[in-house]
Amino acid sequence: MKLCRFNDNRIGIVRADGVHDITGILEDLAPVRYPLPLGDPLIANLERLRPRMEKLADSAKPVPVDAVKFLSPVANPSKIIGTPVNYHAHRLEADKDKDISVYSPSTRARPIEEQGLFLKAVSALVGPSEGVATRFPDRRTDHEAELGLVIGRRASNVSDAEALSYVAGYAIALDMVVRGPEDRSFRKSIDSYAVLGPWLVTPDEIGDPANLAFSLKVNGEIKQKSNTRLMVMNLPRQVSWASSFYALLPGDIIMTGTCEGVGRVVPGDTMSLEFERIGRMDVKVRAA
Predict the structure, then answer these.
(1) Which domain range does residue 221 map to?
(2) What residues are paired with 71 via a beta bridge?
(3) Residue 182: how many CB atoms within 10 A of its CB?
(4) Cα separation of 206 and 210, whole Å?
(5) Does residue 251 sit within a domain?
(6) pTM above 0.85, yes or no
(7) Using one digit for the tens of pLDDT, what is the confidence trace for 71-107?
(8) Which is nearest to 38 in space by CA: 81, 78, 79, 75?
(9) For the chain, which terminus, N or C, has the lower number of CB atoms within 10 Å?
């Protein structure tokens, strides 16, 4: 199943013939009162609601994919987690480019286990149709194409072996960053600097998430191209390691690391990302 959020917070299932509006499924969610619980309630109930979602889609008239505005398929994550330098070639790239690495030129980028994972502000989250609004025009803002992993149920201290059973689905992720000396989380948490979309694909349609070819183009020119099999830290370990430090909640997003080829974008550019068995999304760049 491909689950999306589109236009004015409508919920849809994407099939070959278009987007099927299933917004009525929200009536099946329990009402909430202040203080609101953390996490995304739709993602938390995805497995339970999926049969009814499919039935609603069956009876909904499809709308062409190119006729809707795609928002992030996750509306309410409690956190967005990033995995640094998770492709060997990108680590070599960071070692050579002082603008990419946050370390001094004489210090090589440390392994993931030494750096730890990092967090991006949830306020940075947007969908592909919303685009990226760059700040600090005198500084370099870079694209980083990544596989986005979305947690489906609460996970705390889970093992590597059981980690992927906690995953609700996968999406294309774009981890934007402004280069500079400040802490990584600070520079990656600018509004619109976390793009997720165009939809969430459930694991049964993905097959092996550790073997997905992907690419990113800027204005039609290939900038990044790789495969998730080249990750340094695999997906189960990322989930289990994160869960050993804090509970992962439904809707939490792990941006699982980028490959080599990261580079600057400026207002007027269009980034086009494609992931095998997920799809494609185009993201426009504008000035904030």
Answers:
(1) 80-287
(2) none
(3) 11
(4) 10
(5) yes
(6) yes
(7) 999 999 999 999 999 998 888 888 778 777 655 444 4
(8) 78
(9) C
